[in-house]
Amino acid sequence: MTTTETTSPAPSAATTERMLFVNLPVSDPAATRSFWSGLGFAINEGFCDANATSVQLNPLTSVMFLEHDYFHSFHGTTAPTSGTGALYCLSAPSRDDVTALCEAAFAAGATRSADPTDQGPMFGWSFVDPDGHLWEVMWMDPAAMG
């Protein structure tokens, strides 16, 4: 049996600098706005209205929280029947920042998903936001990342 090794072309600036917009359904965009701004995240007013709240994670990454019916109108989808559809992970610059962000989320109405996990060079904690989305906040030791 032989294997064929293939190589991908080197990424161009267009592929390494792409923006990411995660779109999530929510029941109340205004309440979602209060939750995330209360955690210290910037709101991009240019993409907000009664149906949407845009949370800017960094210059290239935004989360668009869209009212359920508006969210599903884009592709004619319906809400899943049950289960976790995805886990969203945010990086943190330190262990203390993981703890601070999760504690702020709990104080703002999020629920604990699990106890903090300490795996030496990685430390994380997770919460479920008021709309049921699962978020993990993770610190990774830069020295261990190689």
Global geometry: globular
Q: SSE order in H/E notation?
A: HEHEEEHEHEEE
Task: Provide the CATH top-level class of the largest domain.
Answer: Alpha Beta
Count of distinct structural domains: 2
Biggest beta sheet summary: 4 strands, mixed
What do we call the CATH homologous superfamily of the largest domain? 2,3-Dihydroxybiphenyl 1,2-Dioxygenase, domain 1
CATH architectural category of the largest domain:
Roll
C-alpha Rg (nearest Å): 18 Å
- Gap from first CA to last CA: 34 Å
Q: Helical percent range?
A: 10-25%
Major sheet: order of its strands? 1-4-3-2
Beta-strand content: 25-35%
Which structural class best describes the helix and strand composition?
Answer: alpha/beta
Number of strands: 8
- Please give the count of helices: 4
Tell me, rounded to a whole number, the average pLDDT: 88
Tell me about this structure.
- It is a single chain.
- The protein has 146 residues and is of the alpha/beta class.
- Helix content is 23%, strand content 34%.
- The strands form 2 sheets. A 4-stranded mixed β-sheet has the order 1-4-3-2. A 4-stranded mixed β-sheet has the order 5-8-7-6, with helices on one face.
- The longest helix is centred in the C-terminal third of the chain and has 13 residues, at 95-107.
- It starts with 12 loop residues before the first helix and ends in a 6-residue tail after the last strand.
